[in-house]
Write a structure and sequence with these properties.
Chain lengths: 232, 401
Amino acid sequence: MSAHAVEPIIELENVSRIYDTGRVQVPALVDANLTVAKGEFMAIIGPSGSGKSTMMNILGCLDRPTSGRYILDGQPVDELDDNGLAYVRSRSIGFVFQSYNLLPRTSALENVATPLMYQGVGRKERLSRAQAALERLGLGDRLDHEPSELSGGQQQRVGIARALVTEPALILADEPTGNLDSHSGAEVLSIFKDLHSLGRTIVLITHDIDVATAADRGVHIRDGQLYEAVLS
Amino acid sequence: MKLLDLMRLALGRLGTGKMRTGLTMLGIIIGVASVVALVSVAQGATKGISDQLNALGTNLLTVNPGFVRGAVTRGSFGGATTLTIADASAITGLDGVQAVAPELATSKLVIAGTQNETASIVGTTPAYLSVFAYDIWTGTFISQASVDQNLRVAVIGATTADNLSLTDSSIGSTIYIGGLPFELVGILQSKGGTGSEDDRVIVPLSTARELFVGSTSVSSIGLSATSQDAITTVSAEITALLDQRHGITAGATADFSITTQAQLLGTVSSVSDVLTLLLAGIASISLLVGGIGIMNIMLVSVRERTREIGIRKAIGARGRDILSQFLVEALALSLAGGAIGILFGVLASFAIGVYAGWGFVFNPITVVAAVGFSLVVGIVFGVWPASQAARLDPVVALRYE
């Protein structure tokens, strides 16, 4: 499924994820094969219950596949232990969530600086890098605001700044516009387009085909299986 | 993660729920404060008793008639008649003995003017003053001449003087002991304390024997050694001397016993060790309860912050980062509680010490122990909730509402 001949960021080979509930085995992802090249903006499109969340958890190294190979940024990650996965998340992945998932009662600046704390970056440096990331997203005047003092669109921009601050190989966005009004949603999508034009690799997971058109390539996910999609 | 980052996180967190933080710490505050205060009370009480014993004279030895079996002296004070004045004179000649004061004790009604009380009467020699470390408040002590000539003179203790309404202007007046007239020649300085040492009437030994007892035995022999180091030697010398004088062969039970001040102090300190341990043990229970309070609040906190833990893990926190974060929070709670507890404990021991009259006894070891204890409480009761938090599956935690 490779569209580009450049080096891949994501390589999934026959990846399956089967949930064992004790009595029945639920296959959430079946023999998925996917390659995302460096600099690509890829959408994974599927309705709820399609295996979309499982896909996001595997790609984001929050969960391990039951079988198959997953190579992220040149490193096999399917057999890493919890600490190994945490290290990969810390270095290689920036998450953007539907419900923003900012730390409550914590300023925008501290929120964006937190991933750098887990990388062991000194406080002075991480605050200045966090401030730069927030300023790039037009939030230079909201540094000391806590999430509860920001609008949905602003919170999502803080979320994107937090995903960008570590300069990760992959930005993984799970329904980033799902909780936003259409104006803020469009704003967020244009931010992703800008990031793509600057060479970032982005995987956008959504149920909304209109949102998916922001990407330059897409796959459908249905009953745990992937199909190439045609984006108008 | 750096320690400084962990501390900043913990303090920020504790600052956001001040009421909850305060109530959680209260358990530790009460626990540590009671440990510090009760240990200090036990030590203060010990110091008070030791001070009183020292006021009796630190080089003091007492020879009592009767024999010791186990811890019990058979033949109560004044009941046995195996010690004589001649024994006392013989002891005077031993090396390391500074002064010897034989005592002949009895009890008589004492009348002064319109006041009367039944007081203990001690017949003794002038050496009594130095052996038992008394001071004269007014007048003089009984003299050697009064002993030699069986004079009817009396010196009374401070409490006896109070009870009989006698003051410095009463020196030279007549008091009646057992119905017989005596001249009051002196009043002793109070020794303080709660003992009976201030409630007695002292008369010449010969006079007491002639008028009240009528035998050559004495109730006990008090003596002072030349120094504290000499006490053991002197005690051995007296044993050998009296064994020989009383014809006691090896293996036979002695008809006398020797008590030294060091023995008494030893008994007091072993009793006080037990007391300290007991009080500290009782207080530790409240510390334990406080620790359980911390564990409880940390478990609730882990549950409430499940989503936060999921977020932190998603953005790169390892299990051990989460573990340290919650552990440092528990430690901050217990150490802050411990610090406030020490403050209250020290204040309480100061207040009790002043009230009870033994002054402020402060033992830095108690504080070190209290800090160590709060640390241990924080770790022991923080580790479990923290490891619960560290083990959370990020996928599940992120979906937690």
